[in-house]
Amino acid sequence: MATSRNPGKPSSPCVIDRTSALNALKKISSAAPIREIQRALGSQAGLHLVGGTVRDALIGTTSQDIDLAAALSAPEIAERLTAARIRVVETGLKHGTVMAVFPEYNAEVTTFRAGRGGKPQLTIEDDLAGRDFTINALAYDLAQGKLIDPWQGAADLEQNYLRAVGRAADRLNEDPLRLMRIFRFGPAWGRTIDPELMQAAKELAPRIQEISPERVRVELEKILVSARPAETLRLMLQAGILQHILPELMPGVGFEQNEFHIHDVFEHILWVLERCRPDLTLRLTALFHDAGKPASFSVGDDGRRHFFKHELISAEMSQTRMEALKFSNDQVRDVATLVRYHMRPVSCGPAGARRLIRDLGPLFGLWREFKYADAPPVIDDAAVHAELAKFDAMIAEEQARLAKTGGFKLAINGDDLITLGVQPGVFLGSVLKSLEELVMDDPAKNTREDLLRAAGALIDAKRV
Q: How many domains are contained in the chain?
């Protein structure tokens, strides 16, 4: 086991002979963009593939990002790339990173980490010693075609083990975002967290509050769409980190529900989370959909536990937290909408189906997916599928009818109401809303004659 190794000292720099990984890395390094960068920087740059690019090659996956490190300062890297007519983006210059832009992909070229803020060091080992985890402290020497692994990251990859480079507390203190990265690279990928690393995370957990919301959000997104979000969030709770980034979930931990559930609120959220496919909007909906239950809790005269209107509280919570984490306005709106309507039943009749289509709009497909994921666990899965099949047939029928009739547009509009003597304002809007609900209940009444008659009755009632 990896725990038997001394985490305080690296082994001697070594080359791991892994034929398939080397072939994959050789293919990456022979691509035209990499060759162009290599020529532009020159042999003295000591160019290496590093980090995720190498890690992913070792586990047989394809990395979408190309990460390189060089024994040059960031300004030198930018100058040489520009001289070679390679387009560069210098937004990361102060962090020692230059992005080279190609039609195929973008490649980030970073000065050796030990040299940031001063003259670069000249060895890749210095760079790797400053990285977070051993599985990320890997490099591939482009000139020699060698895999460099001074911290035994390849062995940790084989053992599905996450271990810090050197002293865990030192690595986390260098950048507290690593408190989140522990869980993204660890349990989210099925890797066991080294005990020293987990203990350091628990001790330093409050420091996650020092990190910008944008950076926290990026890590959270990757955790949520991983293969093991539930286990990952449980461990983040144990480490005391979840409390700082998703405090809305804390009241649900251990909070008993009712006869329709076998989990407490928090565990139910995790159960639904993993029943959703790895779509970010769906999984964010799962994350927040029942967060408002503890705040809505009541006990009826019969002793039953109730959570009336919890979906409205949950929607507000989702909006507040997602705005704090700097999610996009569209993402905040979509998740809040799905959370707000997640309690709408599928046994709703044609009128209910029409209202769902109207209220959810383009989000209807995601809502339908979520209804399966959130089906009560005490109901047999076959029964859930049968009920949803009936619902789907009803929806298809309503959608076909709406396609023929032109959708939800009323046969009259505000101008018609003004002609009837209604002044523009709140009352006019309320009359139109009432007419819309009338048509939701009975589409056959969406005629000019019927709606004018109904509008007249509403106007007369107002006058009385």
A: 4
